[in-house]
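User: Run a structure prediction on this.
Assistant: Running it now.
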Amino acid sequence: MTKCVIFDLDDTLYPEIDYCKSGMREISKILSGSLNMAAEDIFDKLWSRFIAGDREMLFNKVLDELGYSYTSDFITNLIMAYREHKPDITLPLESESVLRSLSGKYTLALLSDGFIPSQPLKVESLGISNYFTEIVFTQTLGREFWKPSTVGFEKILTNLGITPQMAVYVGDNITKDFIAPNKLGMHSVQYSRPEKIHQDVEVSEAAMPEYKIAKLSELEDCLNIMWGKSDV
């Protein structure tokens, strides 16, 4: 039976902070005309708050700081512009090498939370769609089916006609990525990028990954150990 490696997207295959930076630059360009201010200066204000962790209602806070009067519709339009922009992001060479190597040995799939059209635009910019037999953006199923829901994973397993034991999920976010795979009886691997946005916190046993790797390039060896141990 075919074995399947299912990947998370953000902070697993590429650094999500690069997407955030790309989006902030897009918003800065949009605001430049309204504020009569250099886009780079606006970006500096947005980015300094973002990297400090002050991310809730970020656009509102920066506009308040700059004394700009705005409506809720104005903020909504900025959020949509952020989600709809074509991101300036690049697939790391290590990720490209891993995807190329694994695609000749396993069936690959992608399952990612996040808003539409942001997620498909990320995949397009990274140029990775051809590696995957199945791609599930959980937002297309409904916001309630984002991880830790099992629905997206079950959709992939059903479409590929494989059992949970023949699939592994590779993700980064320990608070939500591995709960559903563990519940279904899938394998799970955590890869944590040093610059990842969502830092690890203490979680229950049900949320812990089966394996952890320090580099994505270690994944293939991990899979060999994993399925070498397996009795399926």
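The longest strand covers residues 107-112.
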